Amino acid sequence: MSTDRLREPLTQVLGARSAAPLAAMGLETVGALVGHYPRRYGDPGTVSDLARLALGEHVTVVARVARATVRQMRSRGGAMLQAVVTDGRHDLSLTFFAKRAGVLRHHEDRLRPGRMGLFTGVVGAYRGERQLTHPDYLIVGVDADDEESALVEASRPIPIYPASAKAPSWRIQRAVRTVLDPLTEDDVPDPLPPGVSAQRGYGTRLAALRDVHEPYDEAQWRRGRERLRFEEAFVLQAALAQRRARAAAQEATARPRPAAGVPSVLADFDAALPFTLTRGQQYVGDEIATELARARPMQRLLQGEVGSGKTVVALRAMLQVVDAGGQAALLAPTEVLAAQHARSLEDMLGPLAHAGRLGGAEHGTRVTLLTGSLGAAARKQALLDAASGTAGIVVGTHALLGEHVQFADLGLVVVDEQHRFGVEQRDALRAKARTTPHLLVMTATPIPRTVAMTVFGDLETSVLSEVPAGRSPVTTVVVPAGNEQWNARIWARVREEVDAGHRAYVVCPRIHPDEPAARGADPDAYDLPDLLDTLEPDGAGEREPLRAVLETAEQVRAQPALAGIEVGVLHGQMPPAEKDAAMAAFADGRAPVLVATTVVEVGVNVPEATVMVVFDSDRFGLSQLHQLRGRVGRGTAPGLCLLVSTAEPGTPAAARVETMAETTDGFRLAQVDLELRSEGDVLGASQSGRSSSLRLLRVVKDADVIAEAREAAAPVVAADPDLRGSPVLAAAIAERLDPEREEFLDRT
Ligand code: ADP
Ligand code: MG
């Protein structure tokens, strides 16, 4: 088999002049060009009657050439070819202009009187006569064998390609034909195993390429697209199946639960739990317990609404590992969250977290916080606790991945909120253990099924759908910005809540008023990437500047309604100690109003918080707003979320915030979010603005295709994990999943 033809440079096949504008579009090889699929197909129209040609209409007529003459034009200079075609009763003029008569000779040569042809163009008029200027045409006996085949040719759907000014669609079409026509089956290797193709009734890959580029009818291009789309999904799912298989082949240390009667931190913890686990927590807990007891690494994604109680599930998993003599690491995306996790784990464990200390339980463990901002002495102690095994649970951020951090026996890694931990971090942690640690990834961002199957396809998924009983509902209201009365009402409501002993968050998209909304300035910059995605389509440039934390805090402090109330500030650029202090003052009510960036988006848990005011809410993504809103209504008092919006009615931004007000169902919001965003956003920021390597497959719309491909790929990979017997598939995986795509696959 030869793949050489597909690698041939277009400069060689088409010539430098034709290849240059294609290269500018990233199409440099035959393979790239035949992989440049039509975006849609134009209607070829039907054959028109010469008697009824309407001005301005795009028509195709069948007629016989009556005469054709080239002449110099005295008035304008240049030359002109005038032909007349006829159906026997009605005539139509065809006109071609050129600088020199020579250029027109080849038309004259083709348009010989008596020949039949098909003529296509837009109907114009000259001195009251209907005419076509520079029509496309096909001559029977020259371009087509007979009239029937000419008609067939003229009635083919017109492929419309993603094009540029220098490479218009028709020119791309011509180039595609030039490279596609001479290709043979051997030139176009097929990543779909023959069995899979046969089962689905597909032809070869080459046939599918012809179907999409040179179809005779709609059914044909649809067939071709379906096949190529399935192929994309199949290659992706095969890659994921391989990855799962590789992970499953790794060795892990089995961490079974202790036998009944044997002292167990987990058993003690369960006995002291002040509430009953929800059925979901129980079920997922059992799933995890079984997997931890195996000598193969668990690879599990735990999804659950904000407040669904994922932390308890994770803690119980960690305790099982601790009971089995191992350690667990909990990774949080920010220092604020790591510190909070460490605190809440200690709170939940109570005396069980103080093993070996005065007042500690006999059987227990220790929770150690290890972050980049610890003082030298504290850091040394934390490192020691991790390395000696004194700390059964080590909580931290990326600092945990530092070279100096050693574990005595790392058995489980829990990642809270996946989106900031890539495969490298995961590998770095694995490298710290003798065997591959078990992995539990938790996310409160609901992930629609198809995205889970694509982006997180190498993880098994569990869902906590039930929220513990007694949770309060959150009411969401959209507040138009710039309305004085509404504005006053916001602060009056905040006052009422504070007076009732509650807390209020005020969220702004940026820190300083003059700060450009750029990535990277804020180490906790949860706000910006999502925000930037939503900024672009709405033409943010012309709009009011985004609200900033520091400025807004001043305005809030100046509100008469809030006189005497302490207002705190929290953002990612504050030193860690200040952040902690701000959170603590908010949590215990000394500063019951907190003006913050979206640092508070993930996981922050202050049950007394009942109100959240989000400025510029129309600039946030839905999933992000959902996360933010999850910060209120975590206690017994009902929550209120006020979305201040500057969006014009009818815009996608307005639709987003209205959707927020309509539903609290995270899965529905995630689905709407996907629909309102581009595919590039779904696949990750690095993909947006570039041609995604998914050409036909749409993660949102093609759920069925993805599911079918997953089913079809599983047995193929199971039978031959290294795909030695399917070299084309293996090559397709290697080629299509370039490092950048691997990265998105790994964003877990
Ligand atoms: P998540 O991390 O999923 O957002 P948490 O684990 O932080 O949610 O749980 C939110 C709150 O609910 C915590 O205060 C936790 O103690 C409490 N909680 C968890 N499970 C239950 C349960 N089964 N019954 C009552 N409260 C629960
Ligand atoms: Mg949580």
Automatic annotation (TrEMBL):
Q: Name one GO molecular function term.
A: DNA binding
Cross-referenced InterPro entries: DEAD/DEAH_box_helicase_dom (IPR011545), Helicase_ATP-bd (IPR014001), Helicase_C-like (IPR001650), NA-bd_OB-fold (IPR012340), P-loop_NTPase (IPR027417), RecG/Mfd (IPR047112), RecG_dom3_C (IPR045562), RecG_wedge (IPR033454)
User: Which superkingdom?
Assistant: Bacteria
- Keyword flag Disulfide bond: no
SMART domains listed in its UniProt record = DEXDc, HELICc
Give residue ranges for domain Helicase C-terminal: 527-680
Q: Where is the Helicase ATP-binding domain?
A: 291-464
UniProt KW keywords: ATP-binding, DNA damage, DNA repair, DNA-binding, Helicase, Hydrolase, Nucleotide-binding
In the record, biological process GO terms are: DNA repair
Protein name per UniProt: Probable DNA 3'-5' helicase RecG
Record the organism.
Sediminihabitans luteus
